[in-house]
């Protein structure tokens, strides 16, 4: 309770203590009393201080010198620091549309109702584009328009609800987890010790072991029980009271409301019976109920930690400092968060790369297991990209920084995992809504039970109502979905699979059609030039190869890779280079005597100038000017080792497999014959792929796997889409699932894990509903005592949690099934 706030001198602003304007200024309600302030600014700040329960600012500030008093509490000043652009660069990302996004860590969330409340409050702020809250991981994934709303305003909005939110820092997560674990362990310890003592007394009293004792001795035992139960109620049960108060304040009841009512009611009635030495006492129920609930919350905390540790460990791999070359070529130590694009850093053997960048050294052996799960070092050549968080193995290297902090691939992976943890499948959303509605119905049912029993048997009315509150609390239902979803995300992360959208857990069940790209998906993507033919005598073969190499330098398509070593492209001068995704490259080629348009690409692209090129059966890359064909190349690659067995498993699981590729019909049919794929759609431009998948979707949901730039639109269109860690950025952004280990067999693990999670999720919800619905008539009819109700409710919650923990167990990946 806040004591009376000091009043300013008459005619002065309550907030800043400056004189009020002649018209009396404005009014603001602080501590339930109307106060006069001088301007809109003071009115807004005073209202914020009141809403966020920071009234101690007015109670204890020094007002002896009005010109030097602070105008903001320290808490709000600290939050405003997060609006600084330099600080935000360390934990925010900016999209192409100008939206900023970050992950907040929230203290004090206990259930889905807390998450719902925070989401609703944030989404009311103008400029907030999206707010997704996950009560399981206690994180908020938020994106906003920085011109319309400040980050500090969102942090203050959350603080006004009674929660503490700060930008998520992976390095602090382990420390925070230890603090919260100690928080629960202390309360569990006190509740456990008290429960043992009170239960021994209760057993003796209930089972007649001390029945021959006189009433005075019985009351003495009651007083001993009261002594042990009091710290349990006042200290151990605090988390439930705080959560219940917040939910009542927000007018969104959660499961801690009936829990708190039951605990306070049972303790109050038992204490009253002890004082008057008449009636029934249930101190053992208070202690045991609190102990079992805390154990459940503690196990839930451990499950959360296991689920989010993978993402957190990624970011913690980054070093704190880096060795940067200055303009004189000398090394200087610098904090990693101060690195900028264009800096050159040196990394010694055994050290972790601090940023993404281009390798300037001739070659390097890089351990990328923290990204891909593959422990064998990868050989990287000069000019290739190396990634932050990977380990330099053999020799000192120099790296040109291209991306730092939130722009690195590692940070983006962690962001994808956060997004998946924040998303909720439709079944999980329905379970949360059902749990929230169940609390309201439970309170109504408890009131009716008390009313009816007051007429039937008044002496039992209170205890029967208490048993109803305890036994029917929907704790298990509230845990059913979040624990299962978090479990499958953890399971897939360990398998190197990242979900961007948890709706795919349900959507995969309905997919019967699998559409796969060929190049880089079914094949290894390691290309070589198997054959070529020069079609003109006007230019030397070396000049033609140099032209092809120069053009292909502008492409990210896997087919362009072998042209890098074909010839020296430096002697070729090109202008107005245009890349046509899925088709080829066009440019202006400058020679000594003339400039002319030139193209390199698939035969269909070249056929717009030279229709006769379609007769070149062995060609899949053709080089031509407007006036003549210059050369054709046959670029081939090999099948992935794991593709045949994986496709066989998918057929057995009931999938119809279709190949969809931009490669030539001849090459596509050759690969399809090797893999026994009956339906092939080849020589497709991106718009052709998109139209084909839309047509398939008229017959049912489509699962698409691809990895190229030209696959981006069709991956976004498919009902479920998957790509690989090596895929183009556009493909990774469009896909629902990213297989970081680049194994095609990841689709088998994906289907097996999502199938198991669906079964466990349904089992959890089914059990929770059966228990809650089944216990209602038994409790209402008075057949359940409060301590039995406490055991039943707690065990049902622990059963749901234990069932979800099966997803954390590493077991052999089974073949996918329906």
Automatic annotation (TrEMBL):
Its main location: membrane. The chain crosses the membrane at residues 188-208, 220-237, 257-275, 281-299, 438-456, 462-489, 765-784. One of its GO terms (biological process) is copper ion homeostasis. It comes from the Bacteria. Residues 100-166 form the HMA domain. The keyword Repeat does not apply. PROSITE patterns: ATPASE_E1_E2, HMA_2. PANTHER family: ATP7, ISOFORM B, CATION-TRANSPORTING P-TYPE ATPASE-RELATED. This is Copper-translocating P-type ATPase. It comes from Pseudidiomarina halophila. The lineage of its organism: Bacteria, Pseudomonadati, Pseudomonadota, Gammaproteobacteria, Alteromonadales.
